[in-house]
Amino acid sequence: MSENIVIVKKEPPLAWVIMNRPKANALNVALINALDKAFDELWFQQDIHVVILMGAGDRFFSAGADLKEPPTLTLGVPMAVAQMDTALLMAKLTTKIEKFPKIVIAAIRGFALGGGCELACACDFRVAAKGSQLGQPEVDRGIIPGWGGTIRLPRLIGLAKAKELILSGEPINEEEAYRIGLVNKVFSFENFEEEVRQYALKLAKGPPVAQRVAKYALNFGSQGPVDAGLIFEGALASIATASEDAREGVMAFLEKREPKFKGA
């Protein structure tokens, strides 16, 4: 594995996690493992509040699975078993992002296709540069999304639109992605990184404890019965209410000043 297959740049309160596999940042086992390790290393770093995931260069967030690297060659086991192993490896990464205690932004400049789109869907926010395209083209190759596309995409944009993207295989541009709710913000191509930085810094000013438990409530509270979800939400709300940040938030409101959250 190249030591630079994933580049982590810390810029507290932000961190940039950059996929670095020219030309298309295609996802293979080595890159998935390197991303998993990067998120592990950032997990407990208290000075980092927002992580920005992006692809190196200005043409690809990620083109998806590396079709030039068959799983049989990578893992040395039968094709079906290798495909399942890779899918489970990717599921481990995307679930880790959903459970990650900080906000994760997928910063898309260029193409986010197939597994690249699925990886972006696991993030808390997706922002795109002008001229970007997102999609699930797997059906054009006689396969289907296998890294969360049929699960997360309908939850983000609804079943009808998810079917349209997955069954047609046709990508959509950043404006259409914004219109249907797949993308949260559209930024300029030329000043993309700076506009992403400013967007992330605004989010980083929020109370980390409340943001973390709200993320968990949103990501996991609806996966079971309503009664269980309400109890889960109530327990998480209690954690936020008991935090020092909650007391600071109330005092700042009463004193008519900006709060200074510490993540405690």
The gist of it:
By secondary structure, this protein is of the alpha/beta class.
Q: Measured on Cα atoms, how large is the radius of gyration? A: 19 Å
Overall strand count: 10
The CATH topology name of the largest domain reads 2-enoyl-CoA Hydratase, Chain A, domain 1
Overall mean confidence score, pLDDT: 93
Question: Percent range for helical residues?
Answer: 40-55%
User: How many structurally independent domains?
Assistant: 2
Write down the secondary-structure element order: EEHEEHHEEHEEHHEHEHHHH
- How far is the first residue's CA from the last residue's CA? 38 Å
CATH class of the largest domain: Alpha Beta
What is the 3D shape?
A: globular
CATH superfamily label of the largest domain: 2-enoyl-CoA Hydratase, Chain A, domain 1
Helix count equals 11
Write the CATH architecture name of the largest domain: Alpha-Beta Complex
| Content-based structural category | alpha/beta
Specify the biggest β-sheet: 6 strands, mixed
Strand coverage percent:
15-25%
What are the low-pLDDT stretches, counting only 5+ consecutive residues below 50? none
Order of adjacent strands in the largest pleated sheet: 1-2-3-5-7-10
